[in-house]
Amino acid sequence: MRLLWCVFIEEPHTRICSLRIPNRPLAAIFATFQLTVSLTSLFQHVFSIYKHRNVFLCRSGISANASIEEKYMAYDVIIFDFGLMHRVLGTEECVANYLDGGYMRFGWCIEQSSALIIAIFSLLCCPKPLWLLWPALLIQSSYSLGLAVLTMATAPKLLEALGGRVDLALTLMFSAYFFGFFFNWIFTFILWHHYWHLERLFSTTVPAEERTRLSKFPEPL
């Protein structure tokens, strides 16, 4: 799979400007970063329940001199929204609050964190059985599609904002959001290609010579 002009994602490895990186450590690094994001989002709920007795007390409209606690609870970290939706859509709460008050977001953070922890364990310590990667594959695929749906739903407003006055704050908000969007799609592709590689490697229908060849890191071109 080719992304842009310099990134090729293949089953055993990913090539970035002719630099080959095995998918296994690359997927582990990506999973660790995304786990940090999901745990940060999960702790938003824990903090909100402990401090405010509310599953997710998110208020997007904060002042410039807001406290660290207020800023922490104003951002929807799980979708890389650091004020973008408030700026573009005029929302006063995080997107999740308009759906069900944040309960589904709470459950999602638990599920994604659990799936990524299992995936990291599988990637670093235990490549077999392959089904250890299934939760992360399902969660990441759904998550990336969800980000795509959110982006398409807000695209008119996003383009309208970009067509107007673009200051540094808006630039940073857009950069953070689209970084998260592309990062998770690339992570999903890498994770799937690594899974397909392991599936071929451990398949009983593949000859022993072929499995030996697949298990070796290919020589550089």
From TrEMBL:
Full protein name: Derlin
UniProt keyword rRNA-binding, yes or no: no
Matching PANTHER family: EXPERA DOMAIN-CONTAINING PROTEIN, PROTEIN CBG16535-RELATED
Species assigned in the record: Haemonchus contortus (Barber pole worm)
Cleaved signal peptide residues: none
Transmembrane in keyword set: yes
Source species, domain of life: Eukaryota
Sections of the chain in a coiled coil: none
Keywords on record: Membrane, Transmembrane, Transmembrane helix
Transmembrane segments: 28-50, 113-131, 137-156, 168-192
